[in-house]
Amino acid sequence: MGLLVAAVSGTEPFDLSGYDTSHFQTGTYxxxxxxxxxxxxxxxxxxxxxxxxxxxxxxxxxxxxxxxxNLDITGNDIDIVMSNSxxxxxxxxxxxxxxxxVNRVRWTGGxxxxxxxxxxxxxxWTGVYDILFKDVDIDxxxxxxxxxxxxxxxxxxAFVECTIDGRTSGDDFTIYMQNDTTPHExxxxxxxxxxxxxxxxxxxxxxxxxxxxxxxxxxxDESVGGFRFSNQCxxxxxxxxxxxxxxxxxxxxxxxxxxxxxIDSLWDHVTRYHDFQGMFLHGAQANTGVISNIIFYxxxxxxxxxxxxxxxxxxxxxxxxxxxxxxxxxxxxxGAQR
Length: 338
Prior knowledge:
Blueprint: E1 39-43, H1 46-52, E2 58-62, E3 65-68, E4 71-72, E5 78-82, E6 86-89, E7 92-93, E8 103-108, E9 111-113, E10 125-126, E11 129-134, E12 137-139, E13 142-145, E14 155-160, E15 163-165, E16 173-177, E17 184-190, E18 193-195, E19 200-205, E20 207-213, E21 216-217, E22 227-230, E23 233-239, E24 246-249, E25 252-254, E26 262-274, E27 281-282, E28 289-298, E29 312-313, E30 321-322
Parallel strand pairs: 1-2, 2-5, 3-6, 4-7, 5-8, 6-9, 8-11, 9-12, 10-13, 11-14, 12-15, 13-16, 14-17, 15-18, 16-19, 17-20, 18-21, 19-22, 20-23, 21-24, 22-25, 23-26, 24-26, 25-27, 26-28, 28-29, 28-30
């Protein structure tokens, strides 16, 4: 599995040059292709906004203000630049149907409040290619589906410097990439912050090439899952730096479906908070990966970190640190800054 789909290279929206993905077996990761625009629309009303996202090859400047209504993105090559003093009260749909799909959307800045509904709205993003959200504060959830008729999966989806809070939606996952017979390819998350109150912040199924760096998951609540791979994912990097680790509170599930759930993974500079010392909850014993530079806070420590096998340890996997069950790292520097 894991057919490599070529994308036009462009300026990277986050510097990943310090991260090693040489363990990837299916090739290098790919950023979303930037949209190509030939016209500009400046919007100040929800009606103008709704009309603009039905066009193609357009730069859309969204002024400060409140926009109440839903967006149905049906065009291609759309570049949205939204004031950080602007809020969309509604969902964002990318599912035109009829055998058509949305390609090359870049959304920079602003705030989205879905009103507690699922999937940045009641609709998943189906079969989308080349989607980038950067510096967006989202109150809602994002579901990324294949088109179950054509089997078209997503390609090159990235979130950079975003906050995605799924707690008001009350659904199982804040980001969910759903499985079928065709793998998704190239999911990137950098300097993001996510929350969920029910199951997992993020669940990735059948994804080839995942890069998650310098991000925080459910900091302040370890009672639900923080991160989940399932259904045969390949090539993953979950990492940070000594100064800005990836922080995961709650369970890390690696389970549910197939002979493996993640192979060829590297976990480096990850800080964990959980009430027992298990690194992962494995459900498939063919999982592979290397674990290095882990700081693990658990109630009852210090003790050896368990739950790593069948993965292996690299460098610096010390005993867990005794934890009071309530204090957490500061995640204020992660995600969209408002």
